[in-house]
Amino acid sequence: MKKMWIVLLLVQCYLAASHKYPDPDAKILSIKATLPFASAMTNPHNITPFDHCETNVTPPTVFKIPEYEINLDLPAEDRWTKLVSDKREKIIALIESIKQNCDQLFGKSLFWMVNEFLPLLTQTLPAEYRQELLGISSATGLSVGEITLFNVFYEFFSVCTSIVAKSEEGVLYHGRNLDFGLFLGWDPANHTWLTTNLLKPLVVKLNFTQGNKTLYQSISYAGHTGILTALKPGKFALSIDERFKLDGGYVGIVEWILGMRNQQWISFLTREVMEKCTSYSCAQKELAKPPLVAPVYFILSGVSPSEGSIITRGRNDFNIWPLGQKHKNQTGDWFLVQTNFDQWKKPPFYDDRRTPAIFCMDKEGNKDVPQALQNVLSTRPVLNKLTTYTAIMSAEKNMFEVWIQSCPDPCWPW
């Protein structure tokens, strides 16, 4: 069944592109035009995978990240109104850009499917989240299908780096780069991803409150209701990185539509964990056990020196990689690095952010871990053209810092 649906999805994409570009050569050239290689091959000096570790990085202060309260005591449809109303024009610009990029790749039939079928998906989501999406659709004027697509985007297009590290004093820190927009509109003139640039003004810091108290904080994109990066002060911090597998989000979404709904959506699961769990052990257990729509890496840190782990999730299985377990080429055992490939496998040559991250963390040492994380997360290609923001957290220190990132040439596309 799963293989059949994969084939059907691939056929749909091919037919959509064939409809727009009946000439095979024209279709291939159009797809190539959206890839970074089209300009990178003619501008080889714009590509620098890794040549040195950054030092003494100071986060930029040009961009102030706006803060919003998400009051969970309000009716679900009203919780996001203030935020998405303020960011309405930027959200619309992002969706329109994604539409144009999808039209180039697959023809206009793809977004016809979004507006035709994703509202049906919305109706099957848990009631609270469904009402939130309907409220956002009403406040922005965008279709329910488009808002739903934005909220399940993680299942398709994120490429990230997360690091958990322990200081000499035993304090845990948690850093992450969130890279987003792969293959969604490459600008060959400016060497940037269009979607990535449109996401940066949508980065916001959220305080989720209940009973006039802050439950937890998160970094999000305006209009996205799930949790990708979050901190529960005094308890734990969490980030998620995409895991690439054939049996991935596309298959899970099709199965969900067909009625196989014993699975959880990743960014909704992480939100439930942030709301309900009051300890690292609870969070680890709740992230490891449920069936998922898509495979994923959960990166988790707590307040005890031993509370750090990477939870590698298949859709129905898990593996926990604890702090203290080293990669083969890792000297220190005081940190964990996760990108988008299994820790026990060698990363592919075309996307190896892990090796430079480990090398630079070893070189930095753990005397000043926040500074080490700032340096490593700003080192190319850990920092790349897809990076929208960098965050550094500590549950013990109640530290939650974030800044918008940029990667001037020479810089790797991802």
Explain what the structure shows.
Residues 160-345 form the Choloylglycine hydrolase/NAAA C-terminal domain. Keywords: Disulfide bond, Glycoprotein, Hydrolase, Lipid metabolism, Lysosome, Secreted, Signal, Sphingolipid metabolism, Zymogen. One of its GO terms (molecular function) is N-acylsphingosine amidohydrolase activity. This is Acid ceramidase. It comes from Frankliniella occidentalis. This protein is α+β, with helices and mostly antiparallel strands. It folds into two domains: 75-152, no CATH class; 158-404, Penicillin V Acylase, Chain A, CATH 3.60.60.10. It is built from 15 helices and 15 strands. The strands form three sheets. It has an eight-stranded mixed beta sheet. Strands 13-2-3-14-15 form a five-stranded antiparallel beta sheet. It has a two-stranded antiparallel ribbon with strand order 4-5. The radius of gyration is 21 Å and the shape is globular.
- In CATH terms, the superfamily of the largest domain is Penicillin V Acylase, Chain A
- Main sheet makeup: 8 strands, mixed
Q: Which outline best applies?
A: globular
Helix content: 25-40%
Structural class: alpha+beta
Tally of structural domains: 2
